[in-house]
Amino acid sequence: MIALPAVSPEVLLGCALASLAMLLFSAGMLWISLVRGFGSGPGSIVAAMASVPAGVLCVALQLSFGADVQPPSLRAVLMFIVAGIFSTYLGRWLVFRSIETIGPSRAAGVQSVSPLITALFGWIFLAETLSGAGIFGIALGIAGLGAISVGVAPASGAGGMTRTARQNGFVFGSMLFGLGAAAAYSGSNVFRASAVREWDEPLLGTMLGALAGLGALLLAGRNQLAAYVREIRAQPVGAWTYFAVGALQFVGQVLVIASMKYIPAGLAALISMCTPLVVMPISYFVLRKQENLSRATVLGICITVAGIALVLLYGRPAV
């Protein structure tokens, strides 16, 4: 029997912060899945805009409690900005698209590979080596993703789409949008983990990143802004839903960064990205008319999560 290490109060606190972030991310994915007819383009901008008032409010609360603000490090500020562009611009838009394409449960299942990519990025960019258990965990995670794609059973949609067309939509949507979002969030985790250890200001760092990501979204979508404004005015309920989800995601990002002070970044990413554990059962029991999950899909998600746990708990050398 393998003895588990003793868990300190600091580790428990870090795991609790990352778990709360995971619950907020899960709530956002489920909430977004209920929106109909509101595109991910304007939705991404509205969600990013929510980060500004949410960040100002959180920073004001921090200052009101008399917390001191550490002087910034230029390198850390730049890393927070790049991380914000990766998550707010690339990651958020891609994950919204994956939810639209394949539904919240399968999107969450593909997103669960993000910590595996984080471990890979850590090996490439941070010179962190992987043990044999880590390599096996990556292989296990890939096998889980394969089971997800094979076992998917899309719900019948309007327009009489054929089964092959729906399967092709899942393959392209999940692999391009879902894995793209996972890679973007993984990159942001690596940048934030490095940044917060130089400048211990997760709130200010997250707000800087959110502002940078919003600027990137506005710049990339400048030709569609007029159409986005019309869509927002025509569907205020959808716009407010994305705004609320954006605020939840901002708080979740702050919690993940804060958890990295107490637990390794890989473990924080593991816990925060285990959204299938929440999204999958709720989506099945509450939104079952929208999605049909086969046993292979459920098994694939579980295998992927098991692979992530193996990589991040036993695949990295102790530091």
Automatic annotation (TrEMBL):
<feature type="transmembrane region" description="Helical">
    <location>
        <begin position="77"/>
        <end position="95"/>
    </location>
</feature>
<protein>
    <submittedName>
        <fullName>DMT family transporter</fullName>
    </submittedName>
</protein>
<feature type="domain" description="EamA">
    <location>
        <begin position="13"/>
        <end position="149"/>
    </location>
</feature>
<feature type="transmembrane region" description="Helical">
    <location>
        <begin position="132"/>
        <end position="158"/>
    </location>
</feature>
<dbReference type="InterPro" id="IPR037185">
    <property type="entry name" value="EmrE-like"/>
</dbReference>
<keyword id="KW-0812">Transmembrane</keyword>
<feature type="transmembrane region" description="Helical">
    <location>
        <begin position="266"/>
        <end position="287"/>
    </location>
</feature>
<feature type="transmembrane region" description="Helical">
    <location>
        <begin position="296"/>
        <end position="315"/>
    </location>
</feature>
<feature type="transmembrane region" description="Helical">
    <location>
        <begin position="12"/>
        <end position="32"/>
    </location>
</feature>
<dbReference type="GO" id="GO:0016020">
    <property type="term" value="C:membrane"/>
</dbReference>
<feature type="transmembrane region" description="Helical">
    <location>
        <begin position="170"/>
        <end position="191"/>
    </location>
</feature>
<feature type="transmembrane region" description="Helical">
    <location>
        <begin position="240"/>
        <end position="260"/>
    </location>
</feature>
<keyword id="KW-0472">Membrane</keyword>
<dbReference type="InterPro" id="IPR000620">
    <property type="entry name" value="EamA_dom"/>
</dbReference>
<feature type="domain" description="EamA">
    <location>
        <begin position="175"/>
        <end position="312"/>
    </location>
</feature>
<keyword id="KW-1133">Transmembrane helix</keyword>
<feature type="transmembrane region" description="Helical">
    <location>
        <begin position="203"/>
        <end position="220"/>
    </location>
</feature>
<dbReference type="Pfam" id="PF00892">
    <property type="entry name" value="EamA"/>
</dbReference>
<feature type="transmembrane region" description="Helical">
    <location>
        <begin position="44"/>
        <end position="65"/>
    </location>
</feature>
